[in-house]
Amino acid sequence: MSVHFDPERHIYTVDGVQLPSVTEVCRFLAYDYKSSQPWLAEAAARRGTAVHEACALIDYGEIPEETPEIAGYLKAYRRFLADYAPDWELIEHPMGNAELGFAGTLDRYGAIDGALTLLDIKTGQLHNAALSAQLTGYGNLLYAERGIAPDQTLALKLSKDGTYELRPVLPDAELLRACLFIHQTVTKKGKKK
Q1: Neighbours of 15 (CB within 10 A)
Q2: At what angle do helices 38-59 and 71-84 cross, to 10 degrees?
Q3: N or C: which end of the chain has fewer CB atoms below 10 A?
Q4: What is the β-pairing status of strands 164-168 and 152-158?
């Protein structure tokens, strides 16, 4: 399957068919879904994107631009790298599968302390249900694309003060299925109007 990601519009297509992202499918579990202050979510999303891009440059051995807004997060990421020395196989890797019905960009996949690890980088709060559904989706995509099931699934929260938290995330296939059902139902209703 040929996956194409348009970062400007945040749209995934697989063999020419547009698929929702894992994040879009799991949006109902987000605490700021339909927030009364959408500008805060937009600012957090921009910051998260900048941190993700800079962390990828670090992983590729390049030096990212460190604005004051993201410098602490990058310090936290460098601390994590020094503490765990991961051996990444995939970095910011777009995937999609028409049979699964969704796509997404996997943050990191590789070995940490000898364990095959799926890792998601966060710059905001860690919400267990949202993480479980999202990382289950990425795990399903990874398995569909490469036949790989990770030994562990982790969330890495980077903080502005230069600290980090590494938390195990338990996959939850039932929760992901519920999110897909809700997404498909809402999408169908929206098309009928």
Answers
A1: 11
A2: 40
A3: C
A4: antiparallel
